[in-house]
Amino acid sequence: MLLIHAHVVVNPAAGRGAAARAVDPIAREFRRQGWSVEVARTDGPGHGAELAGRAARAGAHCVVAVGGDGTVHEVANGLLEHGGDTVLGVVPIGTGNDFAKLTGVYRHSPVQAVQRLVTAQTTTFDAGRACGEYFVNSVGFGFGPEVVRVRNGMPGLSGFASYFVPVFRAFARFRPPRFEVRARGFSETGYMMMVEVCNGTTAGGSYRFAPQALPGDGRLDVCLIRRVSLPRFLLAVPRVMRGTHGTMREVALFQTREVTIRSLDGPLVLHLDGELREPATRECTVRVDPARLKVLVAR
Question: Is the pLDDT score of 2 beyond 80?
Fold first, then answer.
């Protein structure tokens, strides 16, 4: 293998500080595998996109995001805004690590993830775009952003509890908004629990909203869940975790290249790859940008 230079972008706060502790082992393993490495640490929101864009403009072959889905989101946005052929790699050190499930490094230690990355194949993924920002895994409206808001207010939770507990706490106070959802061949207006538009299969760590999604098929997978009662919600949660919710009467699943969500109650609140956004608009069109991002996928 030719010598490859990896620009490693680390969120030192990821994994409750685990990413900061993993920097030296990650760099050592890349070098042991014959790669040269340059490490940069983020120092706040948005810095990961800035560092990734700077590396891409300097001609970087590969930028590796070390952290959770928020770090991946920022690094991917930096690469996508620049354009070019820089490849994205991921060493997952977060809670949900949804994007890592698509790249063959999920549930691997940082050193094991590096070992898999150096022999990984470059694969082309789609990207999504909503409200002027890219996403690589999913964008959500309704209940999803409320769960993110609650989870952000409970920093002491970790592991599975950090995604399971906020779901039930958020449900207790959530009032389903009225949305109008329009796509080619689909139109519905009414009270909706949530709309999740997916490039990947899972969101929120354990929830398989789009079990048939493929990140390079040129389409987005939409999961719409209508207003549900508490008993139906309790039934839905394990089904969504297994990806068997498609037969429920409250659920609509469809694929599209473009979908528009309009709020009839007030400004939209959304999350992009788990990052909360409040764009002060009542309408958002979500589009797929096919074959836009090169990603290292381990087999």
Answer: no
